[in-house]
Each structure stands twice: as C-alpha cells, then as structure tokens.
Amino acid sequence: MSAHAVAAPRAARPAAGRGAMTFRGVLAAEWTKVTSLRAPYWAAAATAVACGLLTYVSANASSVDPGFDPLDSLTSGVLLAQVGPLVLGVLVGTGEFATGTFRTTFATVPRRLPVLAAQVVVTAAFAVVAALLAVIAAVAGILPAASGRGIAVDLTADGTPQVLVGTALYLVGLALCGLAAGALLRRTVPALVGILVLVLVLPVGLSLATDGGTGPAAPAGAVPADPASTLVTFTPSGAASFLTAPPGGGGVAGAPDLGPWGAAAVLAAWALVPLVAAAVRLRRRDLV
Amino acid sequence: MIEVEALVKRYGSTTAVDGLTFTARPGTVTGFLGPDGAGKSTTMRMIVGLERPTAGTATVDGRRYAELDAPLHSVGVMLDARSVHPGRTAFRHLLAQARTHGIPRSRVDEVIAMTGLEPVAHRRAGTYSLGMGQRLGIAGALLGDPGTLILDEPVNGLDPDGVLWVRRLVRDLAAEGRTVLLSSHLMHELALCADRVVIIGRGRLLADAPVHEIVERSGGTLEEAYLQLTAGAVQYRGRATTSPTTTTAGDAR
Ligand SMILES: Nc1ncnc2c1ncn2[C@@H]1O[C@H](COP(=O)(O)OP(=O)(O)OP(=O)(O)O)[C@@H](O)[C@H]1O
Ligand SMILES: [Mg+2]
Fold first, then answer.
1. Taking ligand 2, which is a single-atom ion, which protein residues have CB atoms under 5 Å away?
2. pLDDT digits (tens, 9 = 90+) for A76-86
3. Distance from CA of B241 to the nearest CA of A (A)
C-alpha cells in the first residue's frame, strides 16, 4: 500500500454534538457485527434447509401408512434443525474471544455487560428469522406427501398453531443456549461440542441406556417414574418435546409431564444459568 | 491526560508492573519504552480497563476509563492489530465500533481514507497483511476524534511510507493539544516523534524525562541512552551464535 495518507487537515475538534455510548448504539453495533459475517447466514439457511428436507423425506416415508396424517410429520425435521441455531449462538458467544475482537469491543464498551445483553437480543432476533424460515420449510415439506394422498392440510386446527409457534420458540431458545455456552466457555470447539452433546447425544444415550425409547407419553400411572427418563425430560431437547407436540402431547414415558410452560421454563434455565455465569465472569475477570 | 499512579499488576508469582507512576500530558507525544516483557502492554491494558490493577490507579482526564461516558471520544486505543474478526471487513468492523457511540458512517469513511485503507476496506480482515491490520487498528483509534491516544507499537509492520505517516500523524495530534502515549522499540523513530520518554524495566520506572535531556545525559543517541538505562532490566537476551563470548552488560535474570 502506497497510500499517501497524510493526516488530513483536521478541523478543530467539535466540542458539542458528540454522543455518548448508549445501549441502543451497542445493540446496533452487535447487529452490524452479526450481519457482517457469513456464518450466521449459513447457520440460518442450514436450519431451514435441513428442517424442510428431513420433514419432506419423513412425510413421504410415512405417506404409505393407511392412517397417514401429514401433520404428524410436521416436526420430524426439528432433529436436524436444532444444529443451526446452536451453531449460530455459539459463534456469537465465542466470536469476540476466539479472534481477539474482544479488545476492540471492550475498550469501546468498558462497562462490558451491555455487550452481552445486546448479543442476547441480536442472537434472538437473528434466530427468529431462521426459526420462521425453518417452520415454513417444514410446512412446505409435508405438502407433497399430503397432496399425493389427496389430504388437505389445515394448519389452523388441532393444536397445529401451537406446534408451529412452539417449534419456532424452541429453535430461538436453542440459539440462546448456544450463545450462553459460547459466552461462558469463550472457545468455539469446547462450547460447540458441549452443547451438541447436551442437546443431541445425551437424550439419545440416556434413552438407549434405559432401553425405554422415546414414545408418546403413556397414560398417567401406567409407567413407574424412571430417573433416566426424567433426566432426558430436563435436557433442552427433552423439554422441547412438550413445545413441539400438540397440546397434551410430548414427553417421555416414566417422566414428569412438564407441559408447555414448564418446558419453556426448563429451556429458559438452560440459557439463563450459563448466561448469568458468563456475565459474572465478564464483569469480574481480566480480559486478556 | 493519562495519570498512572503506583500501578501494580501481578499474575500469580509474576509481577508484570511494579509500582509504576508516570503522567502523559496533553500536547505531548510520550514514548513508552522498555525491554520485551517490561510491562508496557500490561500497563496500557490496565489504563483502558481490560485488566484490573492489583494495586494503584490509572486515570484518563482524571477519571477511570470504565467510568467514561463516551470512551471512543475520550481515548483512542490500539493495542494489538489482531483485535479484529478475520471474517469482517475493515469497513464493517469500524462501523460496528462507530455505532456504539452514534458516530456517523461518514466518519468511518474518513478514517479509512486517513489510514489509506480504501482499496481494501471492503475485503475481509483475515486477508490483510500485518501493516494493513496495523492501519486498521490506528483507524479505530482515530474514529472518535479522541483527546487521548494510546498506541501499542503502532509502526510495527508498517512500510517506510507508513512509518513516516505515523510519525507525522502523532506529531499533528499532539500539536492539536492531544495526549499521545506510544510504545515502540524503534529508537530512531521515537527520537524523531516523541517529546518525552518513559522507560520501564521489569515493571519499574527507569527514566521519565524529555528526549533531549535523556540524550544529553548519556552523551550519545537515544538508543545508547536506552541501552544504558535498561542494561540491568533485560529479561530476555539472545546470544550471538558466532562469537563465543557474550557481552555481559546486565544479568539475564
Ligand atoms: N495474561 C498474563 N498472564 C501471565 N503473565 C502475563 C500476562 N500478560 C503479561 N504477562 C507477563 O507480564 C510481563 C509483561 O508483559 P507485557 O506484555 O506487558 O510486556 P511488554 O513490555 O509489552 O513487552 P513487549 O515489548 O515484548 O511487547 C511479562 O513477563 C509477561 O509474561
Ligand atoms: Mg507489548
């Protein structure tokens, strides 16, 4: 570079009209940061595509059943759609520390906590868009199988609106769980591995270990309470089954029925507890 | 104005900064010198609140950095060229920084032009050379048109044209009445652009005086004066592989 960037003649420093740092400003800055990287867009696109494709495949496979109801396949894509929001959240949480950007960020916002708060808002906002796309993709995914069997899909009936909203909220919640893990651990690989194990591997492992398998909730009292199934229910994805099922559904045999609100509370705790720990670490410790 | 008073920083058993006191005044370029590991960067990180002092205080214009309402307008900071996300362009990096304080986009374009980054401003920072990254760091420090600048080895990695530019820039900034604290290992460069030098070794103050005074005292160049002053405080010293005898100007710990 041979730019002869001689210090431009500088006007006298304006004494007035210079704004202070504001939370709105920090919010705008974090939005600028997230939207200026490629990974968040990839994560959002992957969420929608994975959700749509898996739903489509699953609905097509089930459509040969005599009692096929396309709406039963509506959330079959969630299994894969979980990954995108988690990656999105983790990358926002670790991005500052994995790259050294934190020096710029926290020298600019020395109070520190507004940055974390802004990251929560920005991640949620970005995840809402990704989640809406994923839900739309899921609906699109069941349509071919439904029309192939000549079944009209009615999204307004039988608790389907709750399923759609619950699925979207779950995906947004996962992004916040990812952000919390990333902000707390500050390193991308440990945070990503940790959160994927918690959300994807642990529930399957626990279910296999107890040989229980996941199925629709058994009639109350039919199955004795079982510690492993109870643990599964309190993982993010276990709790989410109450959010992505029609009212009254979801859950694992032998585990407490959380209901949608209880499930939302469990999910919120998985985001909030590590987030508070991350805030304490951010506030108290040196940034090096 | 930067005031550092009895500043101490310990990392476990290592004492990086050991009771350091000095002042960088407005209208002055203060050169901050010392051997590798002397505690220059640590001191600067404490001034801007990234690290908490074990003891002592550091203030800018009489206030702790973390208490400033508009840090970007008070202090421009460049600590390390690797303070940028490699996936973000220079423009977006600076824009994000500017938005925290409601600084307009036009100012971002201005500092990009000032630092000569226009040709690469919309390229991802991960593709930048060391010098380009350094220019981006300086651009960020200038963004808020601050009254105080803290620059850690700003000419590190710059081409001769860039070195000359930084020299003029810091002179101009001081001439406008701003406070400039600048660390460097390039003595010739500092002799040309600093008014005053603060020399530290092993976290302690070794000298704090106008450049001409230090040079006169030693009767040689600033480099000779520096070597004399820091002879006993060098912690990391290489050895010549060709000569069997090593000079023992000071103990290597
Ligand atoms: N986070 C840390 N943990 C432990 N020790 C540290 C840490 N940061 C710095 N140190 C130590 O503190 C001392 C001062 O380091 P510092 O980076 O401030 O030196 P410096 O004067 O900037 O050196 P250089 O000229 O090489 O940049 C060194 O001994 C270093 O190893
Ligand atoms: Mg240093």
1. B 41
2. 999 999 999 99
3. 35
What pTM value is reported for the model?
Answer: 0.90
Q: Which ligand is nearest to the CA of B80?
A: 2
A127 Cα to chain B: minimum distance (Å):
20
Task: Give the CATH number of the domain where residue B201 resides.
Answer: 3.40.50.300
Residue B249 forms part of a structural domain: no
Report pLDDT for B244.
53
Separation of CA B11 and ligand 1 centre (Å) = 9
What is the per-residue DSSP string for chain B?
Answer: -EEEEEEEEEETTEEEEEEEEEEE-TTEEEEEE-STTSSHHHHHHHHTTSS--SEEEEEETTB-GGG-S-HHHHEEEE--S--S-TTSBHHHHHHHHHHTTT--HHHHHHHHHHTT-GGGTTSBGGG--HHHHHHHHHHHHHTT--SEEEEESTTTT--HHHHHHHHHHHHHHHHTT-EEEEE-S-HHHHHHH-SEEEEEETTEEEEEEEHHHHHHHHTS-HHHHHHHHHGGG-------SS-S----SS---
Q: How many domains does chain A have?
A: 1
Does a structural domain hold residue A14? no
The answer to the question of residue A239 being in a domain is: yes
Q: Which residues does chain B have within 8 Å of residue A107's beta carbon, measured at their own beta carbons?
A: 48-50, 71, 77, 79
| A249 found inside a domain | yes
Q: What is the ipTM of this complex?
A: 0.91
In-domain check, residue A16? no
